[in-house]
From TrEMBL:
Superkingdom: Bacteria
Pfam families for this protein: AAA (PF00004)
The name this protein goes by in its record: AAA family ATPase
Species: Levilactobacillus angrenensis
InterPro entries per record: 26S_Proteasome_ATPase (IPR050221), AAA+_ATPase (IPR003593), ATPase_AAA_core (IPR003959), P-loop_NTPase (IPR027417)
Keyword Nucleotide-binding: yes
Domain AAA+ ATPase: 99-235
């Protein structure tokens, strides 16, 4: 047992911090169990479960404003290296347990903010709880602020806070600029309550908010976050590579479908500005899902139509767009011999 853990136990006891005391004690019991002293570990666990020193913590399922999120194993979106590096920094900061525990992911819809929060939880093997913001907002005067105060009480009472991540998805409605002349006074109170809640947050709980409207945030609220991660940092090359990864992953569920990554890349490159990964995923998956299972490459012309909003029957246009005769065959459904003949301007054989 480390000296710091003893000091933490004393401090949490003096502060009447049940969550901190229990989490530290459980951690000590876990250390004893790992070093072979299972009897002492069991004694600590039994003492904690029977002690009357503290009020027992509520089960998370009984809370009104937070809900546990079930994490799927393969739901992540590919990310560029710059964002991956920042997420690794978030993971490291949480692991170091230095009180650097409040993060804001900002960016356009479909950039992977929410999925990245889930990935952070997977890496850290923490339980993820999402705040039900709709439940917080109340039309009655002062109720929203009261709900926010109750929310943070719930968060601070969650069992084993060092194993928890709290997600505020689409935080915008609680983050309005209180100095804005168009602000609704009630929501200004809500923002103030949220600021107080952040200040009272158990330092062992990691909190991550997401937004695509950071420009409307209260400045004081932005300062409460230890780090703000920008998810808009995708280059055209990043998105092309991500589209290939999404396609490969999608096609694994369709074993009889043909693969032509080079052709798909050329189709995607026809877009002046590729959409962000969320929209890319939907566009590619829909093209494959709608395809005829009896035709190996039926998703190819469907993808072309979705990208260009044109039908791939104009052989001359396809040639000008840089497609080979074989690729034009796959796009148009016209045989290579006919494609070659029509592009040369030969008269059809009688």
């Amino acid at each position: 047992m480390k000296k710091q853990e003893v000091l933490n136990l004393i401090r949490y006891y003096a502060e009447d911090n049940d969550a901190g005391f229990r989490d530290t004690a459980y951690g000590i019991a876990d250390e004893f169990d790992k070093t072979g002293d299972s009897q002492l570990a069991e004694y600590i666990m039994a003492t904690l479960s029977n002690t009357n020193t503290f009020v027992p913590q509520a089960e998370s399922d009984s809370f009104q404003f937070v809900q546990r999120v079930q994490l799927e194993n393969d739901a992540t979106l590919p990310l560029p290296d710059s964002i991956k590096d920042d997420l690794l920094g978030v993971v490291n900061a949480i692991r170091h347990n230095m009180g650097i525990n409040r993060f804001l992911f900002e960016g356009a819809p479909g950039t992977g903010k929410t999925e990245s929060v889930k990935q952070v939880a997977r890496i850290l093997k923490r339980d993820l709880f999402q705040v039900s913001i709709d439940e917080l907002i109340d039309s009655h005067l002062g109720e929203t602020a009261k709900n926010i105060s109750q929310l943070f009480k719930e968060i601070n009472q969650l069992p084993q806070p060092s194993r928890v991540i709290i997600l505020f998805d689409e935080l915008d409605s609680l983050a309005m600029d209180r100095t804005n002349s168009h602000d609704v006074r009630e929501m200004g109170r809500a923002t103030t309550a949220f600021l107080k809640g952040l200040d009272s947050l158990n330092p062992q709980v990691a909190l991550i908010g997401t937004t695509n409207l950071i420009q409307s945030f209260d400045r004081a609220l932005l300062r409460r976050f230890n780090s703000i991660i920008n998810f808009n940092r995708y280059t055209q090359q990043d998105l092309l590579e991500i589209s290939e990864l999404i396609l490969e992953k999608t096609l694994t569920r369709f074993p009889n479908t043909g693969r032509n990554v080079r052709l798909v890349r050329k189709i995607m490159a026809l877009m002046p500005k590729l959409p962000y990964p969320g929209d890319l995923k939907n566009l590619i998956e829909t093209s494959v899902a709608f395809s005829d299972p009896e035709k190996k490459f039926d998703y190819i012309p469907r993808l072309y139509r979705a990208v260009t909003h044109m039908d791939p029957k104009d052989l001359s246009r396809l040639e000008k767009q840089g497609f080979t005769i074989r690729e034009i065959e796959l796009l148009s459904g016209v045989s290579r011999s006919t494609v070659s003949r029509e592009l040369r301007g030969d008269s059809p054989v009688e």
